[in-house]
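Complex record, two chains
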Amino acid sequence: DADVTQTPRNRITKTGKRIMLECSQTKGHDRMYWYRQDPGLGLRLIYYSFDVKDINKGEISDGYSVSRQAQAKFSLSLESAIPNQTALYFCATSDPRQGTDTQYFGPGTRLTVL
Amino acid sequence: GQNIDQPTEMTATEGAIVQINCTYQTSGFNGLFWYQQHAGEAPTFLSYNVLDGLEEKGRFSSFLSRSKGYSYLHLKELQMKDSASYLCAVRATYSGAGSYQLTFGKGTKLSVIP
């Protein structure tokens, strides 16, 4: 079983709809992250959480919100989707107690907003 | 802010050696990571450098010079499966957050040809 899972893997939605992307992990890591990836722009940080009670904005948080329901779950919501939110979204986890605090990524969610 | 530069594309021959360079400008440097990403898939961790010098791991090695803001990823005995994007990521202090964050370069797409 994969250590970091994301659902759904693919989603097509319409402008103005609210959608939620979910991330679950079995790695026991405290830290979780949401990124988006666009062609030519690389990975950009949306939100991150260092524990259940800690939520922080990243580089591009406008138009997004998150919820850390448990150590293992971190959800990303688009309150009112717009076409320029079409992208590949990745969840990642890390554990600073393991020395390098390396981030490990889920398989991604491909989101298309029409 | 942080600025990370790496070539957009490279081509190399199967069995040969390739070096992918990464230059960065940042404050509060706390480590440099290399990830491999096949098209449409998740980034996977390759290497980590925090001190100057060379880290070797099988066919892959990574070098860091903090004074020059420079790193490279070295791949030898290239195989067709090495065709992928290679992402350079720098961990540094994130303004206002009081914590370290990872900033990614735009990636270098490597094509290995027979």
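Note: DSSP finds no helices and eleven strands in chain A.
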